[in-house]
Design brief:
alpha/beta, Alpha-Beta Plaits, GMP Synthetase, Chain A, domain 3, 3 domains, 3-stranded mixed β-sheet, rod-shaped
Length: about 400
């Protein structure tokens, strides 16, 4: 699907304008909700409309949620510190959870109050027409606020702002229900206004449960969608030097996500080259997926489960060096020892200085003795003796 040329571009997660735009959007919502709370509650009382009062309580819950958003937006932008090494982004998640709980509680209270009123319809005074005009005004204000906040939330890719926008849309829908209930009451159906209040209550409860549940999913480290994971997986596999990917884990952190990947590389490359492949992999994912905040790449030479269980039986460097030392007696002193732990056994590469002419016959004899002795060691699969010297050494000074 082609992008809309008139749509505003998304704002980078690291753009300082994110915080100011979030605050401006939320303060506009605060002003609208202050006006609506006052209008709906006062007119609801004067015009005897329980539905309009319920809608005013919904707007009041919007107002509380707006202040939660302001609080979360202020603190979630704080950088990582010693106590919060991954940053403070999940303050937004906690705010979304609180928002959901507040909505559910508000809706339950509205349902309870309206249900009591429905048990004694004869005592309810008729609703005045002023309530209908107020409900219509609230509907227009809430729908406009929803469209504005959703636009900003999508530009910022902020689940918290998007959640607050849909909260405004739910309030617009509730205002529509209230308007219909008031019309029914004005037409002589006394119960219509209270029924509208009950419907509004259920709408608020449902929205609150949805927001709270989504926040809980993030707090328990639910992974990204299958499409997002598949895209990240492909970016990793396409990296030069990565032979396979055998573990990939993802989790959300507010509007960002974190990725852990276990990649396999050629087991005989150097540590520094393996590190370079890992860093290249990390950069590829970050560059191709702006919503990913960080990638932890673990370099393996074999599948972890099989490799780790087999490695428990192998010798570490100190023990292996202790066993090889008497075998290498009579050879030039080793300069370097490289070990490869593969398939549950060890491959050793020993680098020695070039032997002198007088040492050649002794070296050949010792090599044959070493070969015979290693046939008796089931944990060593290969031993290479390399006699060489560097041809070039750069001056690092």
């Amino acid at each position: 699907m082609a992008a809309n040329p008139d749509s505003s571009p998304e704002i980078s997660f690291d753009d300082p304008a994110r915080h100011s735009l979030t605050q401006r959007c939320t303060w506009i919502s605060v002003l609208v909700n202050v006006f609506l709370v006052a209008a709906q509650v006062i007119v609801g009382i004067v015009a005897h409309s329980q539905g309009l009062i319920a809608d005013g309580m919904h707007s009041l819950s919007d107002l509380v949620c707006d202040f939660l958003v302001l609080f979360a937006a202020h603190h979630s932008k704080d950088p990582a510190d010693e106590s919060h090494p991954y940053g403070h982004a999940r303050i937004e998640t906690a705010a979304s959870f609180a928002l959901g709980v507040i909505l559910a509680a508000t809706g339950a209270g509205i349902i309870w109050g309206a249900s009591i009123k429905l048990q004694d319809l004869g005592s309810l005074p008729p609703v005045q027409s002023l309530a209908l005009w107020t409900a219509a005004l609230a509907l227009l204000c809430k729908e406009g606020l929803f469209r504005y906040m959703l636009h900003v939330g999508e530009r910022l890719r902020s689940p918290m702002l998007i959640a607050n926008a849909w909260h405004a849309r739910s309030d617009a829908a509730s205002s529509l229900v209230v308007a219909v209930g008031i019309i029914g009451n004005l037409l002589g159906y006394t119960f219509a206004d209270s029924i509208a209040a009950v419907i509004v209550g259920f709408m608020i409860v449902r929205m609150g449960v949805v927001f709270a549940w989504e926040a809980v999913q993030e707090l328990i480290d639910t992974g990204l969608s299958e499409d997002e994971v598949a895209s990240i997986r492909q970016a990793i596999i396409d990296t030069d030097g990565v032979s396979s990917l055998h573990e990939l884990r993802t989790r959300r952190m507010a509007h960002r996500s974190l990725v852990d990947a276990h990649i396999c590389v050629d087991p005989r490359i150097s540590v520094s080259e393996g590190h370079r492949i890992a860093e290249t992999t990390r950069k590829r994912v970050l560059d191709s997926h702006p919503a990913v905040a960080d990638v932890l790449v673990h370099v393996d030479v074999e599948d972890d489960l099989e490799h780790d269980s087999k490695m428990e039986k192998t010798l570490d460097r100190n023990e292996l060096t202790r066993q090889l030392t008497p075998l290498l007696a009579g050879l030039p002193a080793p300069e370097r020892l490289i070990l490869h732990y593969l398939n549950g056994r060890v491959e050793a590469e020993i680098f020695l200085p070039l032997p002198t002419a007088e040492q050649i016959s002794v070296v050949e004899q010792r090599e044959e003795e070493v070969r015979q002795r290693l046939l008796e060691n089931p944990l060593v699969s290969k031993l290479s003796l390399n006699y060489n010297r560097p041809l070039f050494l750069a001056n690092n000074g």
